[in-house]
Amino acid sequence: MTYRAPIADLRFLLEHVVDFGKLRSTELFSDVGEEVTDAILTEAGKLCEEVIAPVNRPGDKTPSTLENGRVRSAPGYAEAYRAIAEGGWVCVSAPADYGGMGLPVTLQTAINDMMSSACLSLQLNPLLTQGQIEALAAHASDEIKALYLPKLISGEWSGTMNLTEPVAGSDVGALTSKAEPNGDGTYAVTGQKIYITWGDADFVDNVCHLVLARLPDGKPGTKGISLFMVPRNLPDADGAPGVANSLKVVSLEHKLGIHGSPTCVMEFDGATGWLIGEEHGGMAAMFTMMNNARLGVGCQGIGIAEAATQKALAYALERKQGKVGGTGAIIEHADVRRMVTTMKAETFAVRAIALANAVAIDMGEATGEEDWKARAALLTPISKAHGTDIGHEMAQLGIQVHGGMGFIEETGAAQFARDVRVTQIYEGTNGIQAMDLVARKMMDGGAAAYALLDEVEAAAEAARETLPDLARPIFNAAENFREATEWLVEQEMEDRFAGCVAYLRAFARVLGAHYHLLAAMAEGGSGPRTGLARFFIKRILPEHEALIAQVREGAVGLYDLSVEDLQAV
Ligand SMILES: Cc1cc2nc3c(=O)[nH]c(=O)nc-3n(C[C@H](O)[C@H](O)[C@H](O)COP(=O)(O)OP(=O)(O)OC[C@H]3O[C@@H](n4cnc5c(N)ncnc54)[C@H](O)[C@@H]3O)c2cc1C
């Protein structure tokens, strides 16, 4: 079974569920009409199906290697990457002033979803470049922008993100890498970074590392960190890659999955770097990159959920076991039907959340309105954490649908499960995302959350006459969740954090049901989308009640078992 880009689904979601058309009423995106959207989705889909998906298995079986300090990429990756770069697909949302297409992040999000289904390991390369483009566009000097952006946008050079160190994982502020001024406007960057994705690549002319390090007068913690551009090869007077910088890939990690993506231990030994943004303002600059990457990583989960669903459905239609009517295949068994329909319903819901997130980013950019920016910020941790949780869960269900064949590598179902697992960990673990949701994203007292719940309830009200069995549970769930939010924002941080993962998932349940309802309404209240909505609302939405009960427990009893008790019981 080969991957088929879900163009019809994406088109339907954009036009009927997440109100992508609203962007066309803004000056910035007035020319992104239906024809442009269709052409972009169709062409990107074709590239994913025909060029990128075929390198997914070879990259899993023959991982990238390190030879004489340089990464040799997996078979077929170089050719597939060249097709991505030559087609202009590295970053379609990059600014037009530097050679980009200036398209909405929403279209980038749809493309990232498809590319992740096709080959997660390779897609990580352009994903990181996208984040770097955004960070440079927002924070770099004009000279750096003029030198680096066109090369990154065209895909001649690629970008990486260097935060993590052995002592600094989730706690980025603990990092020990140093930067000393060279006296000529450049800096000497020294330190070791671990887990650096695509720390080198043999299919680009230069690799541009964005590195977090501390200046001599940098305070301890995140407030004393600065951001530097440290290229593998120093650009010469013409901007071409020149002499090698003082940095190297020390080794590659052996991993559970994404074998095609080289995860590098990097050593910077007085490497020449250029400051990006303000001195000691590195975290603010890096956050631009991380926010972009968080939505992108959420899409990796969605892409894997889609690919796993396609494979499971194809197998369920083919495999015969037991006497059943209809097709005579296992899809007729109640439990297999439950699993496959769950995969469809969950993938639709989480894709809608990510696209709504992207529309909010674009509306914030196009209108400058704070409400849109607040919505984008609120939805980002949900897209990242729930997108990747669902990716993991659907990949596991996909294995189950295959029975024993799911555990055998040839089917590819197991690769999805191995590849997607890390998406719940990198770019800020899903626990850290949930903490962000209940702390920083609730500093408005819940205002952005309430504004979203108002829309959920208004849609449920509008559907009360025509689709009462769907509208009523959603309205009640939104009310329930609103009350939980009112309770949450009154609590101490420890109580919020204790229930934050449950809170994030409950929020995603309510939003998923809402987007399913909008799809059912757009279909006129009967048909397959309405059936899928009913499945989600009746069988998946009720989970929110148990989740809210966990949220309301706060930290009560969480520490009742001492560390000694945990070792004793
Ligand atoms: C394959 C791969 C690729 C990666 N690519 C990159 C990259 O390109 N660039 C880069 O800089 N990094 C990269 N990373 C690093 C990644 O972002 C980190 O692994 C991640 O941020 C978690 O840090 P850690 O591994 O040190 O885990 P830890 O921080 O040690 O976390 C361990 C556990 O403790 C929890 N925890 C930690 N602190 C808290 C807290 N304050 N409150 C509650 N729970 C907490 C975590 O949620 C987690 O469950 C990559 C990692 C992997 C595995």
Automatic annotation (TrEMBL):
Q: Which residues form the Acyl-CoA oxidase/dehydrogenase middle domain?
A: 161-269
Q: Which family does it belong to?
A: Belongs to the acyl-CoA dehydrogenase family.
Where in this chain does the record put each Acetyl-CoA dehydrogenase-like C-terminal domain? 453-561
UniProt keyword Lipoprotein present: no
Task: Tell me which EC number(s) this protein carries.
Answer: 1.3.8.-
Q: Which residues form the Acyl-CoA dehydrogenase/oxidase N-terminal domain?
A: 39-156
Name its co-factor(s): FAD
Residues forming the Acyl-CoA dehydrogenase/oxidase C-terminal domain are 281-440
By what name is this protein known?
Acyl-CoA dehydrogenase
- InterPro entries tied to this protein: Acyl-CoA_dh-like_C_dom, Acyl-CoA_Oxase/DH_mid-dom, Acyl-CoA_Oxase/DH_mid-dom_sf, AcylCo_DH-like_C, AcylCo_DH/oxidase_C, AcylCoA_DH/ox_N, AcylCoA_DH/ox_N_sf, AcylCoA_DH/oxidase_NM_dom_sf
List the Pfam families: Acyl-CoA_dh_1, Acyl-CoA_dh_C, Acyl-CoA_dh_M, Acyl-CoA_dh_N
Which UniProt keywords are listed? FAD, Flavoprotein, Oxidoreductase
